Structure formats: structure tokens, C-alpha cells
Amino acid sequence: MFCTPIAEVTPILPDLPRLPAISLQQIAELEREIDRLQRTEEAIVVATGAPRERGCPPWVVLGVKAVETRGIGAA
Q: How far apart are CA 43 and CA 58, in angstroms?
């Protein structure tokens, strides 16, 4: 489970009525997918043998940049 500071949540509160409804099952599935991807990311870092300081995110070690894209509608 993720803990988001209220300062990050407050700006989106006015948009909540426009956000799509999502079921608890979908949330659980998405959380499992996030966990799987984080484990994969960590495994890639370990496999590269790249030096890493404590607390350094895997994407920094790997030299990649995350970008936000619009999702593809459900089939």
C-alpha cells in the first residue's frame, strides 16, 4: 500500500468526480502489477552489477527516464 502526503492529493481533489470509477479488485490487480514491476526493476539493477548507493532508485542506476503517457482504452 502506498502512503501519499496530503499535499500531493489536495490539488487533484477537484478532479475526483471526473476520474473514472475503479473497483477494489482493479486496484488490487494494479498494486500487484506495480510490485511485480518493482521486483523486476530491482533484479535488472542487481544483474547489471552497477554500483548503487543506499536509497538510489533503480531507474537512476540504470540511467533511464520514466515518462507519463496516456493509457490505451480498455478492449
A: 9
Q: How confident is the model at residue 18 (pLDDT cuts 50, 70, 90)?
A: low
DSSP letters, 7-30, are HHHGGGGGGGGGSPP--HHHHHHH
Could you give the CA distance from residue 44 to residue 50 in angstroms, rounded to a whole number? 10
Cα separation, 36 vs 15, in Å, equals 29
More confident residue, 65 or 18: 65
- Does residue 72 have a pLDDT over 80? no
CA distance 72 to 62: 27
Cell numbers that stand for 53 in this block: 548507493
